[in-house]
Here is the input.
Amino acid sequence: MKGTHGLVNEHRTRILSVYSSLRTSKLGSEPHLLPRTRHYQLKRSDMRNVLHADLQPSFDTSVSDNITTTSGKTAYLPCRVRHLADRTVSWIRRQDLHVLTVGRYTYSSDERFQMIHPEDSDDWTLQVKYPQREDTGLYECQVSTVPKMSKFITLNVLVPDVSDASSHEHRRNHQRKTLLEVSKAIIKEGSIQYIKSGSTINLTCIVLESPVPPDYVFWYHNGHVINYDTREGIEVKTEKSPRTTSTLRIEKARPEDSGNYSCIPSNADPAEIGVHVLNGENPAAMQHGKHTSSGTRFSTSSTLVPGMLCSVFLLVNR
Here is the structure.
């Protein structure tokens, strides 16, 4: 009876023979066009498996092994394996040695974890939906060789709040001083904005005097990080460059969207703006009324004070 190695070699010889004959025929050279034989129909994946059977799998070291995301934002842990052939790729969470996926199948009861493997690719990506702080840690991409091969990926889940951001800024103060530069953010729209209910809030944050682009830019509303998944129509786009720009867009603004908005880069002082969503009022009239009201208060105070002094003088001289 033939050994496994002999069967693999016979299988490879048969595929290469048929494939070679097709290259010289008019049928084309795509493996999926190969005719059905007595025992199997050749596919591109069959060809890859047989041709790679005697090659040792290897990890693509150009793929990042450190992934950072924010709480609630889907994370993708990459693992690219060359010459996998008929071996299996598994993902394991190292903190509890829990097997998350094996091949294309999910073995965890936690449905947030899922394997993504495009057909005929070397990528075996672990998808983590709605990551939380406790998901931070080391993950293992393992190949079923003998002995097993492993590549370790670190997942960092950031759960920012205003106090954390403030502490982060204090820790960076010394570095800023040594560079003789103080990075800061500005919001292009100014310090206050009035818009009508139902219209779109557009805010643009620009990071100035930063020696390097920030790792991230967070937007806050009334001291809470904005969750882009809570409703449709909220979008943030950040373009990293020597002059990094982050834009916040909120469609169909509501009165409850009013409040203080903060733009907090990872390596710069934050910027703030007050937004007022008006329900039926005219934004231009509100701006005018604001100044008129202030002027009226000043005028009333100016008239009232001399009158009070006069009354006191009369009482004293009685």
